[in-house]
Amino acid sequence: MTISLAGQTIVVTGGAKRLGRAIALECARAGASVVISYRSSGDEARETVGEMQQLAPQSRFEAVQLEITDDGAVARFAATVFERYDNVSGLVNNAAIFRRTPFETLDIADFDDHIATNLRAPFLLCRAFGANFLTRNGGAIVNMADIYGVRPLANYVPYCVSKAGVVMLTHCLAKALAPRVRVNCLCPGTILTPSQTQGEADDEAELLKRIPFGRLGTAEEIALAAVFLLGGPAFITGAVLPVDGAQILR
Fold first, then answer.
1. CA Rg value for the chain
2. Residue 3 covered by a domain
3. Which residues are the active-site residues?
4. How many structural domains compose the chain?
5. Taking 80 as the threshold, does the pLDDT of residue 179 lie above it?
6. Cα separation of 232 and 226, whole Å?
């Protein structure tokens, strides 16, 4: 099934690097104009914009510095995007933090930081963009959770709690914003390289034991799933889609 986002504008938070970059590029390949936000990765954001322009010279692309935990900044960002771009139809809440936080050294600042960035910020963005979608042509929101929002990790308590909250946020907003706005959630498994991945294993061989599919996932596979949820069947909302090679079942 080929998904076209031609003529649409998609917003991807944290779109400068890693999964966000892959999602932004896949949206460009699907024909969308794309606005990415970044906090401090300005150089990488500009590189991503350049790559998107090469992929789809007919579309518009922009990188915007944004503090996603700032309610006022998020509201202004949403207003500006809807003012500058036609047919803003999708939001991908990808920006997040992921830090090892063993219980013995965990402090309230660690907890608050994860909740603010990984849960409160997606809520602020959903509220700002969802309100606009409701009064315009509708839209689709894709929240990025994690299989570890469903399966706990001992040394990542704030991260797991924040991502579990994203799952419930998705369920709640799918009901609250239906039928004008679809809200779905992706739960990636182990995706990047062993040094960057989500988990506690020390090497790739140990990681692969946890994945029935027998390999790591790729950022491109996550991006394809995101584009599917953005532009696929209109009856899919409130879904939580693992993209993990059945890792969540272990």
1. 17
2. no
3. 159
4. 1
5. yes
6. 10
What distance lies between CA 127 and its chain's CA centroid?
A: 15
CATH number at residue 117: 3.40.50.720
Range of the domain at 82: 9-249
User: What pTM value is reported for the model?
Assistant: 0.94
CB 163 within 8 A of CB 148: yes
Q: What angle do CA 204, 208, 17 make, to 5 degrees?
A: 60
> Are the C-beta atoms of residues 27 and 51 closer than 8 Å to each other?
no
CA angle 26, 27, 31 (to 5 degrees): 115
- Helices vs strands, H then E, count in the chain: 8, 7
Asked if 182 contacts 237 with a C-beta cutoff of 8 angstroms, the reply is yes
Residue 224, sorted as left (phi over 0), alpha (psi -120 to 50) or beta, turns out to be alpha
Q: How many CB atoms lie within 10 A of CB 245?
A: 21
Tokens at 4, concatenated: 């076209």
Q: What one-letter code names the amino acid at 207? A: L
> Is residue 1 in a domain?
no
Spatial contact of 93 and 143, defined as CB atoms under 8 Å apart: yes
Per-residue pLDDT for 196 more than 80? no
pLDDT at 208: 87
Give the span between the Cα atoms of 214 and 200, in whole angstroms.
Answer: 17
